[in-house]
Amino acid sequence: MTSTAACIHRLVTAEGRSRSAHSVELFGWLILLEAPLFLLAPHVVADLLHFAPLEPQAARFVRLVGLLVGGIGMLYIVSGRLDAEGFVFGSLIDRPLVPPIMALLWGLGVVPGWLALAFAIQDGGSWLWTLLLWRAERRGGAVETGEVP
């Protein structure tokens, strides 16, 4: 079993991680950077999503969503830095679900088309990048370099 000090060292240095884990970390930073918008400007988020003006309690719920988005971003960052292979694989299963779900939400009129497209491109593109790196690592190339293509 790995000691706490060793885990903290790996978290800080990200030594020996795979390129696919690095792509997961970068996706986490992207998600984490979106969270402050929910936390600090819930009314702007409501406008972007074409919601009715928010009541004070609804604004607090949007802020709560921001906290959850930030937590997911941190989970991706930490898992990527620690080279958590199981998490990398798990992200390859969950991220391709976002584009069809966003298409459905757009089709139902829940989110505007430009926003559905932006999230579909963000998740779909990062999924494809991670998948290509992961497959190359399984074939024996591009393993353990820690560099981004």
Describe the protein's architecture and organization.
- It is built from seven helices and no strands.
- Residues 142-149 have low confidence and may be disordered.
- The chain is mainly α and 149 residues long.
- 74% of the residues lie in helices and 0% in strands.
- It starts with a helix and ends in an 11-residue tail after the last helix.
- It has helices spanning 4-13, 19-40, 42-48, 56-81, 85-94, 98-107, 113-138.
- The chain has one domain (17-138).
Summarize the structure in short:
With 149 residues, this protein is mainly alpha-helical. The chain has one domain (17-138).
Basic shape = flat
Counting DSSP E segments of at least 2 residues, the number of strands comes to: 0
- Structural category is mainly alpha
Low-confidence stretches: 142-149
Oligomer designation:
single chain
Order of helices and strands: HHHHHHH
Strand content: under 5%
Radius of gyration: 17 Å
The major beta sheet can be summarized as:
none
Number of domains: 1
User: What is the distance, rounded to the nearest whole angstrom, between the alpha carbons of the first and last residues?
Assistant: 32 Å
Task: Return the average pLDDT rounded to an integer.
Answer: 89
Number of helices, where a helix is a run of at least 4 consecutive DSSP H or I residues:
7
- Share of residues in helices: over 70%
